[in-house]
Amino acid sequence: MYGVEIYLASHDLNGGMTDIVGQWSRTGKTATGIEHLGLLYVRPCVNICDLVTSSGGVPPRAGSLFTVQNDNRAIVFAKPPTTGGSLQEPQIGKGELASIGSVMGLWMLDSERRWRLFVNGAEKTPADLPLTLRTGDSVALQDGPTFIGIRPIAATALDRADEATVVIALGGYGGTPETTRVKLEPTLTIANMHKSGGEPLERSLYDQRGYGRTAYGGFVVEFADTERFADIAAFQRHLASGSLEVKRSALDRVSVRHVSAGESLEAEFSTEVQEVYVHFPILPGSQVQAIAKRTLNGASLLPPPGLDRDSNWSQQGTTGRLEKNGAVLETERGRMAYLIAEPDGRGVLAYNLVPDPTSWRLGLPGGREIRADGKAGLLRVEVDMEARLVSIDHERGPTQDAGTLAQRFTAKGFGAEWH
255-301: per-residue pLDDT in tens? Predict the structure, then answer.
């Protein structure tokens, strides 16, 4: 979450409906209807560039998105299918390869246009669209109190250089969702295409020339609001002070570096990774190859060994000590534990995620403490500061003897008003 009513979330590797999604309140207040919400997401596509339709909750995906996010901005690296021969009719329709690329959709469902669009600082009206962007162009969108900055990662051309285009337009790339027969399309689209015209490309030629193993495109997205910038002009000055550098570090490696407010977000991606379309987005075991590097100001964004999750609310891992927002969970090293602590201190959840016995202690601000008197099994402890409530759920595994586990827990520092 960034600001009061802005959210940007992503999967680094997923292959689902929305690998990256931005959502914002168009009024700065809690939304009470769909017209009060804005939505952004991106899909890779071949021929069927449909931002709506899915099959059992899964889009007809053709290609991959690899995403590196930090706080309110993300690098979204898009690569076309590694091989054309693997593509099936549900993904691309009948025929050969007519269009290849990635498309961003921006949804602002309201009969009254309140959004404002800028390219390199110059405001554009709906009459100016569609508009072909040039390499290096910067797009800014204001929708109520929300500002969105978008820098396309220029798609590499396949056959002819003039076929690679980035076009921002009203609508397009819509479809019919499974839950209704009404066709929908985004308010605005930005299509970053390797190929969008000319003669269709034969799949065999696509594979023979290795396009799927070298081509790339995508976007860099940055969210902000009026809590940080006084107006859209201030936000655009901020965008202009940043930079985007994209370079090929090897035949199958691309380095992307985005600098914003002096902070450098950098990632290295592979164009060689083979996507799959059942159960996994790419071949299992190739995750590190797909995103070989992700750093902020030179420091790795990956958690250290033993820590599987680390957000502003939670930590999960086997280090034996988890700390978040003043709460400390101590277990035996090697046991998988999970700690959730609200930033405002209102609530804490702490888990022993598997029934493997472990020593267990939860320390809280103000000297409060909950400790297992013995070994803990499968365990969930909830502390609600507002309700003055402590809840402990403790279970043994199906083959465990209850006598080997703690029979009681000791709580310290909780007054008589707690229960």
Answer: 999 999 999 999 999 998 887 766 677 777 788 889 999 999 999 99
Length of the chain: 419
Cβ neighbours for 149, distance < 8 A, ≥ 6 positions apart = 138, 139, 140, 221, 222, 223, 224, 235, 238, 239
3-23: pLDDT as tens digits: 447 889 998 888 777 889 999
CA distance 350 to 343: 15
Burial class (CB in 10 A: 0-12, 13-18, 19+), 80: buried
Q: What are phi and psi of 289, to 5 degrees?
A: -70, -40
Select from 200, 208, 206 the least CA-distant residue to 95.
200
Question: Distance between alpha carbon 138 and the CA centroid of its chain, in Å?
Answer: 21
Instruction: Kindly state the tokens that stand for 174.
Output: 């819509």
Whole-prediction pTM: 0.83
The whole-angstrom separation of Cα 314 and Cα 316 is: 7
Sign (positive or negative) of CA dihedral 381, 384, 388, 389: negative
User: What is the DSSP track for 115-179?
Assistant: -EEEETTEEE-GGG-SEEEPTT--EEEEETTEEEEEEEEPPPPSS-GGG-EEEEEES-S-B--TT
Residue 299: per-residue pLDDT: 93
CB 103 within 8 A of CB 190: yes
- Residue whose structure tokens are 């592979």: 270
Residue listed under structure tokens 């999960």 = 316
Q: Which residue has the higher pLDDT, 84 or 45?
A: 45
